[in-house]
Design brief:
The chain is an all-alpha fold and 119 residues long. It is 85% helix and 0% strand.
Length: 119
């Protein structure tokens, strides 16, 4: 049963990273958005990559460290998403940013709950 949960969260973190990449592609490429886009692409991908590493961990200590990194990277993704510059006449982009910020917050909460159960 736990394996199914891991698989679902792996899919969810993958979808988050993929959606962030699509969001960044549609941004106006100002200097700030180029730099913030690079950062959010890195952090969003790191959430899922570290979750995969956690599932393959060799010890409980390693698992806990990887989950902490997942939570940290989700929080960092939320930060960079908030900094992206959306044009005033792009309500669809703003709605997508809000959705991605909500997803990063939910991922933070999920990893926080996993951490509490694991310690």
């Amino acid at each position: 049963m736990q394996h199914a949960k891991q698989y679902d969260l792996e899919d969810r973190t993958f979808a988050f990273a993929r959606d962030v990449r699509g969001f960044v592609k549609r941004l106006n490429m100002t200097l700030a958005n180029v730099e913030d886009g690079k950062q959010v692409i890195r952090s969003s991908g790191s959430v899922g990559a570290n979750y995969i590493e956690a599932n393959e961990s060799l010890s409980k200590k390693d698992f806990i460290m990887r989950i902490k990194i997942c939570r940290k990277e989700a929080k960092e993704s939320r930060y960079w998403l908030g900094l992206t510059d959306i044009a005033d006449n792009e309500p669809d982009q703003e709605n997508e940013r809000k959705r991605l910020i909500q997803e990063s917050t939910e991922l933070m909460n999920i990893f926080g709950a996993i951490l509490k159960k694991s310690q």
